[in-house]
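User: Sequence in, structure out. Go.
Assistant: Echoing your sequence, followed by the structure tokens.
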Amino acid sequence: MFNALKSLRDKLPNWIPVWLFLFLTGLLSILAPWALFIVAMVLTCFTAYRMAFVAIYSIVGATYVRKWEHTHWRAEYEQHRTPDSLAWDDVLHVVIIATYNETLEILRQTLENLSIQGLAHDQLAIVLAFEADEPTAKQKAAVLEDQYGRYFKYFFAALRVKDFL
């Protein structure tokens, strides 16, 4: 059932839901203007509520980032280490970069910034995840692996086939 609906959605032009929404809004404004007003107010309040949380959590997140930028993580690890903890050098950090039609320049900036990290060569694994239907995905992957692969412990490029699952 779900796949049938997904298939139908993929076949419909994008403008049909938009015009259907506009038609129903116009019809509702004629038949029940107060109902339309109430729906609009509820949506406005809900949007304001969501925006307030986005603003609050953006400030909280920025505060944490500023704090963590000045944290010496190895000293933090040594302070909280237990006998069951992995050795610092045994930890592998995996960074997955999902991309679709991203310019080579943006991907280079991302990999450049990752490559200057202190752990890059010994503990950083990069996975570039491309969409298979992106025309230049394989070429980008080859160029980036050639330019930046040596800076990381592991460097992989993966292509996601559309409708695999």
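User: And one key feature?
Assistant: The beta strands are 93-99, 124-131, 154-160.
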